[in-house]
Amino acid sequence: MSELRFTEDHEWLRVEADGSITVGITAYAQDALGDVVYVQLPDLQRYEKGSDASTVESVKAASSVYMPLTGEVIAINEGLNDSPERVNEDPLGEGWFFRFIPADTNELATLLDQDAYDRLLKATADA
Amino acid sequence: MSETLAKTPLHALHLELGARMVPFAGYDMPVQYPLGVMKEHLHTREKAGLFDVSHMGQLLLRGPDAAAALETLVPVDILDLPVGMQRYALFTDEQGGILDDLMVANTGDALFLVVNAACKDADLAHLRRHIGERCEIVSLFDSRALLALQGPAAASVLARLAPEVAKMTFMQFAAVRLLGVDCYVSRSGYTGEDGFEISVPVEHAETLARSLLAEPEVEPIGLGARDSLRLEAGLCLYGHDMSERTTPAEASLLWAVSKVRRTDGARAGGFPGAERLFAQQRDGVASKRVGLLPQERTPVREGAEIVDAGGQVVGSVSSGGFGPSLGAPVAMGYLKAEHAALDSEVWALVRGKRVPMKVAKTPFVPQRYYRG
Questions:
Q1: CB pair distance less than 8 Å for A40 and B31
Q2: Does the keyword Transferase apply (chain B) (predicted)?
Q3: ipTM score here?
Q4: Class of A4-101 per CATH?
Q5: Is the pTM of this model over 0.90?
Q6: What is the C-alpha to C-alpha distance for residues A60 and B223, in angstroms, rounded to an integer?
Q7: Interface test mutation site (partner B, options A30, A33, A35, A87, max chain B beta carbons within 10 A)
């Protein structure tokens, strides 16, 4: 498995063997959201970085999942339609949201690596 | 920010139990415990949940004229409220709008009121301004905590502390000694389940809460599940499903207007906004509150616009979310009268998409009150 990258919005990204990037939300994010009851997945189309690609609904509230980098969504996790709880149970695995082809692969390096993300979590916890 | 928030007597206990705290009505309140909203909700329907609702306002009205005086502010029969009974009531304004909803119990020597946290200061001022000369108004805001024990096991749990509560039926009210402390207990709640609300002096609240939580059936339940439980039970949340902009007729709360206070009743009217309410009962209302079942898995939340088949806006959602016991989203909202009939199909706009919804009966899950 390739190493993960992260956004400050608590999304994770993983580069797959075919060069596409899988996106999900982190364990911290799913814990903060609480029980996920619905995920509105993106359409198979191009999204700009920072645009609303997906929405995750917990019992409590709806939260946006932003497109981490500009790119074309090529696959969505249809399993979440029937089992949105996978986002809570296995956020880094079965709870993935979508895959996309980035417009510029180099942009990935601008995102947080595991160490930087861990520091962000620590800073959040200490705040 | 948390420094400016008020704390209930159970605040330290919430933190100890690992609650996630949020600001609510000026209080730092537990929205959920480590169990999480979904499991807390299901646990309450299956066994018993303990809720801290000490942020709500408790009041006593004393004096021989108290019941008659209170009747000038609510469209409800208070004069004939039997000792040991509680009744749901509404404060109305001159336009018939709802200023707050409340519970009124007859203790035998006083009327005991429970009002919403966000409205309690305004309610106290309202009472003092309009009936302060006619009865003694005692605020218990700082002296009493309020616990709700809800769920099918609530009665057997509370009966371990006071066997007599098992005999109480829905909406009965009694002075009960719990752990040697004089409490008020009503068999009522805000979940659709059997259960009790317990008014306890603040200095004894934590001991009582710990004692109830020590019972194997009982889990602490936060505001998140309180909201999903009451929504499934079809119960209104003040400020959302009704407000000063809606009358009891529009809010589909005419059942709360006592027979004797209605237009053909022995004590018809005599509360603020009676003329408007009676006119609405006679002529109908332009829009009213209904239950709504989204036909897809998308939760439809407060504020979502509702349109008809032609795309015309015909209402909006006042409360909405996911119903864990139903396993599906549930909502309430206001619809123009011509769309408010049961089974009418309308559409909510959620993030630019149309979600089909059906006008549905409430409660969405059966109420399980204990009626003896």
A1: no
A2: yes
A3: 0.82
A4: mainly beta
A5: yes
A6: 10
A7: A35
